[in-house]
Design a protein that fits this description.
Blueprint: H1 3-8, H2 55-66, H3 68-73, H4 75-81, H5 86-99, H6 101-115, H7 121-133, H8 137-151, H9 156-167, H10 173-186, H11 190-202, H12 209-218, H13 224-235, H14 243-253, H15 257-267, H16 276-288, H17 292-304, H18 311-323, H19 327-339, H20 346-358, H21 362-374, H22 381-393, H23 397-409, H24 416-428, H25 432-444, H26 451-463, H27 467-479, H28 486-498, H29 502-514, H30 521-533, H31 537-549, H32 556-568, H33 572-584, H34 591-603, H35 607-619, H36 626-638, H37 642-654, H38 661-673, H39 677-689, H40 696-709, H41 712-724, H42 731-744, H43 747-759, H44 766-778, H45 782-794, H46 801-813, H47 817-829
The protein binds one DNA strand through α14, α16, α18, α20 and α22.
Length: 835
DNA sequence: TTAGGGTTAG
């Protein structure tokens, strides 16, 4: 069977060496050393060594007179060594091989390691035979591995030919050829390996099961795996304990899990059949397919076969359950393993930790850590990385970075993954430049950025619209031979979208897809989302129709975007119909689909439908997210149904769905509107109890509430206290209070706050001045209006037509003719009275 | 044979 590979895979001429004679390797076991005599060397002599004698003879004489070790340690040897050519080295090694095999190997290594000498095939095989004879297989493998690195793929015919010509009857041929096949296999040159095996078969030489196993493994994605397996059986090579698990793994790789199970059933009773590893492999595959239940039944089957699940079995299953969100069951299995005397290890704890993190339940993750510490298991790099992820996910970047520093202080060398998590956090919070700093720190620490690290940064830059800088990074990545995938392309699409360059985005998409680089649906989804964002629902639908025509399968995200588009443009009924289209593709609407629709209905004031959809989600076991609840709460708030809103907030906590700051801000705003400031502040306290820091928006809502309620003193007091506590505020906090003071006519307090706002470094536009000037002038406060006007001019802001007209009107009404004339002059100068 | 990092939609 294997013979077919000789013919099929090496068509045409083999790259045989033109002349083997240039490599002086004895073809028989008669030693070259026997022929050594004094003769003039063919090697060109140099000025350094005017002695025309053959260096081979010099060296051999040296060995004889001083002994090998003493001679190679001397200066004379080192001066003569650089003159040797391949043929001469071959002769020396062959001589040593006969006299003292150990010296032959030492000499070979000395030349290679200390002098960087690249040995000939002949030398390498000579030493290989020495090592094979002594069963020094590890060293033998190393030599062959290096040989194959030099020779490359497709070299098997030539190397076999050479071996047979030069070493035909040597004792260790079988071992050397077998190791050659193994080296080919491990270097992923499987067809060369198959060629060597075929050659061995011709010569009646038996391959080892290790070589067969390695080949089986490397052919796991391919049906040829079965040819090799049959060959093992036909040749009568005894299988090892790994053989069946490698085959099982192969079947799993080929997505033939059912066949893998049947295969295992058939091997039951065999010496090495049905190993725990094989079962684990199958469980792992089922878990990866999202079928944790099936994995569980395999687990039971394993026990039925009398096998004892090991720590891997449990970890694989617990992982599958965690990913499926079944934390309770996962924890039960953890208890079960303890009961069976298998201690959960660091991997088990990390899996559980990640499981809680996936559900956004970091408190659960912390409990796992406590439990782990109690059991005397210390967190490792992976544990820390999961925790950093957790912090970052809840927006707690500083805590995440603190943990990163803690890792360093505990002597952990941050891995590329840990760095990537931190960089990702920084990018997500808009601190891309800090992310880049960390990236450089990482590289300075000797870690090489990979595709994901680059993708995170490219994405971060694009999201900020910095397409140019992203492109530089992209080029840097490509120059390091890291091939981008569609992720990077997606980032550029987002970058264009961010800058509103929709047609550029489309050109980019067309370029990427038409050059057949990728047909990734995610890219189309981003493009559809971009059209939707700019309210071009028609173009979004056209693109959708195009991908359908091209046979690309949409995802639920495709539909969610379209539904969002219809909702945004007020076409809620059509949006609803698209939900049925989702089902026609065998897809299921997600919480986002529902939330999008619910938000639209809520905006229409149709809370009945909103609540009906919430009910439908429950029936279909589609878990609402905190956003879903926030949408419902917002709708209820708008209708003044405060009690229901508070009730829903409590329901969320009960269901383990953590409200976020927006949820609280929504409901707090609602209480502010009905002037229930006491309840509003109570809710702020409640946020803190749930470890939610109020956001700048929370304070804006509260300040606005106090202002509207007429408690301007209270609002001022709150602002001062926030400033004293160095709490981050936005411009809105200031404009809210400035507005309130203007309305009340307290222009001086408004002025003070305005100065503070400017000094805080917020970007101030002409609209901020005009908001104040409008209000003051409306109240006829001419002096105060003029004060703000001069402030504006001092700040280097020129009036525009709109503000000019407001001022003219105010001065005119106040009978301030001088000011009217002065302003008119100014406006003419500025060209604001052109029309 | 098990654990940690990147995309789209509300």
């Amino acid at each position: 069977m294997l013979n077919k590979w000789k013919r099929l895979n090496f068509p045409g001429k083999f790259p045989f060496l033109a002349s083997l004679s240039s490599l002086i390797v004895s073809k028989s076991s008669v030693s070259v050393a026997a022929k050594i005599e004094y003769e003039p060397t063919t090697c060109k002599t140099t000025a350094v060594n005017p002695n025309p004698r053959d260096p081979v003879n010099e060296i051999l004489l040296g060995f004889r007179s001083l002994g090998f070790r003493r001679f190679i340690g001397g200066h004379y040897f080192r001066s003569i060594i650089s003159m040797l050519n391949h043929a001469q080295v071959d002769r020396i090694i062959d001589y040593l091989r006969v006299e003292d095999a150990e010296s032959a190997v030492d000499f070979f290594n000395l030349l290679k390691d200390e002098f960087g000498f690249r040995h000939s095939r002949g030398s390498r095989f000579l030493v290989s035979h020495v090592l094979a004879k002594e069963r020094r297989l590890r060293e033998l493998h190393l030599i062959l591995k290096q040989l194959l690195q030099d020779e490359g793929s497709g070299s098997a015919p030539s190397l076999c030919e050479f071996l047979l010509d030069s070493f035909r009857d040597w004792d260790s041929n079988g071992v050397v050829l077998d190791m050659l096949a193994l080296a080919y296999s491990k270097s992923e040159m499987v067809y060369d390996a198959l060629f060597v095996l075929a050659m061995m078969k011709d010569l009646n030489l038996q391959s080892s099961i290790q070589t067969y196993n390695s080949l089986l493994y490397n052919l796991r994605h391919n049906d040829i795996m079965w040819d090799v397996y049959n060959e093992i059986k036909v040749s009568g090579t005894p299988q090892s304990e790994h053989t069946d698990s490698i085959l099982t793994n192969g079947l799993c790789c080929q997505s033939r899990v059912q066949d893998a199970v049947s295969f295992l059933r058939n091997t039951e009773g065999k010496v090495f059949g049905s190993s725990v590893v094989s079962f684990n492999t199958i469980m792992s595959k089922y878990c990866k397919l999202g079928l944790a239940d099936v994995a569980k039944s395999i687990f039971c089957l394993m026990i039925k076969y009398g096998l004892h699940p090991d720590v891997y079995s449990y970890n694989i299953l617990i992982h599958g359950l965690c990913v499926a969100g079944s934390m309770e069951e996962a924890l039960e299995f953890k208890d079960d393993m303890e009961k069976h005397g298998i201690g959960p290890d660091i991997v088990t704890y990390n899996i559980l930790c990640k499981g809680f993190h996936l559900l956004g339940l970091m408190s659960g993750a912390w409990k796992v850590i406590q439990n782990m510490l109690l059991k005397g298991v210390n967190p490792n790099l992976v544990t820390y990385t999961i925790l950093i992820c957790g912090h970052c996910q809840t927006g707690n970047i500083d805590e995440g970075l603190k943990l990163g520093r803690e890792m360093l202080s505990r002597g952990f060398q941050l891995s590329i993954i840990s760095y990537s998590v931190l960089i990702s956090c920084l990018c997500k919070s808009g601190q891309v430049d800090k992310g880049l700093e960390l990236f450089h720190e990482m590289e300075a620490n000797g870690l090489k950025a990979d595709l994901i690290t680059y993708s995170i940064l490219i994405h971060g830059l694009c999201k900020q619209g910095e397409v140019q800088r992203a492109m530089q990074l992209y080029n840097e990545m490509c120059s390091k031979s890291i091939s981008p995938n569609s992720f990077a392309h997606g980032a550029f699409l987002l970058g264009f979208r961010e800058k509103g360059m929709i047609s550029d985005a489309r050109m980019y998409l067309d370029a990427v897809t038409m050059s057949n680089l990728t047909q990734d649906i995610v890219l189309y989804n981003i493009m559809i989302g971009s059209y939707v964002k700019f309210d071009d629902i028609e173009e979004a639908v056209r693109l959708y129709e195009q991908i359908i025509r091209h046979g690309i399968t949409p995802t639920v995200v495709t539909f969610n975007s379209l539904i969002y588009g219809f909702c945004r443009t007020g076409r809620v009924a059509e949006a609803r119909r698209w939900m049925d289209t989702i089902k026609s593709y065998g897809l299921e609407p997600t919480a986002i689909t529902y939330t999008t629709l619910m938000n639209a209905y809520s905006e229409e004031g149709n809370m009945d439908t909103v609540l009906a959809l919430l009910q439908e989600m429950e029936e279909k076991v589609i878990r609402p997210t905190h956003v879903t609840y926030t949408v419902v709460i917002k709708g209820l708030c708008k209708q003044g149904k405060l009690h229901e809103s508070v009730q829903l907030l409590e329901d969320m906590h009960g269901k383990g769905i953590t409200p976020d700051q927006i949820t609280y801000n929504t409901i707090i705003q609602c209480f502010c509107k009905v002037k229930d400031m006491r309840k509003a502040f109570e809710l702020v306290d409640e946020m803190s109890l749930h470890n939610l820091e109020p956001t700048p928006a929370t304070y804006n809502v509260l300040l606005n509430g106090l202002c509207v309620f007429g408690d301007l003193k209270g609002a001022d007091g709150l602002l001062i206290s926030l400033q004293e506590r160095n709490i981050k505020l936005t411009k809105v906090a200031y404009t809210t209070l400035i507005k309130a003071h203007c309305v009340k006519g307290d222009a001086s307090r408004a002025g003070v706050l305005f100065r503070e706002m400017v000094e805080k470094g917020f970007e101030i536009s002409i609209r901020d001045y005009s908001a104040v000037i409008n209000r003051l002038s409306k109240r006829g406060l001419i002096t105060e209006t003029k004060f703000f006007l001069s402030m504006m001019l001092c700040d280097g802001v020129s009036p525009d037509q709109e503000i000019g007209e407001v001022l003219l009107n105010a001065f005119h009404q106040g009978g301030d003719t001088n000011s009217v004339l002065e302003l008119l002059g100014q406006m003419i100068k500025l060209g604001l009275l052109g029309d």
